[in-house]
Specification:
Shape: globular
Order of helices and strands: HEEEEHEEEEEEE
Strand order of the largest sheet: 4-3-2-1-11-10-9-8-7-6-5
Number of strands: 11
Structural class: mainly beta
Number of helices: 2
Length: 176
């Protein structure tokens, strides 16, 4: 493993502990017409083992009926910390790239291929808050949906998600 790969792993996960860190959020999916398709609560927990070589990523989605849907993955430094970024077992076709130390990152498709869907997600961190915005495109290159996450350390955000995006302007169509 190269020195650069070591630095990258540290930037992504160096702050984690064996107890983990839970971000409580409102996860909202918008249509290309900027209307809410779905909005739900989600809890993202990341924790490492003692020597910080394995990170366990757990997403929980509480339901009004009291049940909780849970998805969990393990990212092993040896296999997931690739020269071209972090491979997440949930989608090996993408890579995470650390933008700055401890928290801000982006998930991007490794390769743009004609006839295949594409997405990009940007995670920004400020103090106890995370904000994520993702754009998901169809195989034809059309915007399929927009994902917006607002997360807070150890508690859900107080404010509700707006029913429509009102301040998104400009052309959000990528070109190859």
């Amino acid at each position: 493993m190269t020195h650069l790969q070591e630095q990258h792993w540290e930037k992504l996960f160096g702050f984690l502990t064996i107890e983990g860190q839970s971000m409580y959020g409102i996860w909202t999916v918008y249509s290309p017409e900027k209307e809410v398709i779905k909005s739900s609560q989600g809890i993202r927990n990341l924790r490492s083992n003692a020597d910080k070589t394995v990170v366990t990523h757990t997403n929980q989605f509480p339901s009004p009926d009291g049940s909780t849907l849970e998805k969990q993955w393990q990212m092993e430094k040896e296999t997931c910390n690739q020269p071209d970024g972090l491979l997440h077992p949930a989608d090996p076709s993408k890579r995470a790239l650390a933008l700055v130390d401890y928290g801000s990152s982006t998930w991007v498709s490794r390769k743009l291929e004609s006839g295949r869907s594409f997405s990009v997600e940007l995670f920004l961190k400020h103090k106890d808050w995370n904000t994520s915005i993702g754009s998901i495109y169809t195989e034809n290159g059309d915007l399929d949906k927009i994902l917006h996450l607002r997360e807070h350390l150890n508690s859900f955000p107080n404010s509700k998600t707006s029913e429509e995006i009102t301040s998104l302007s400009g052309s959000w169509i990528g070109t190859k």
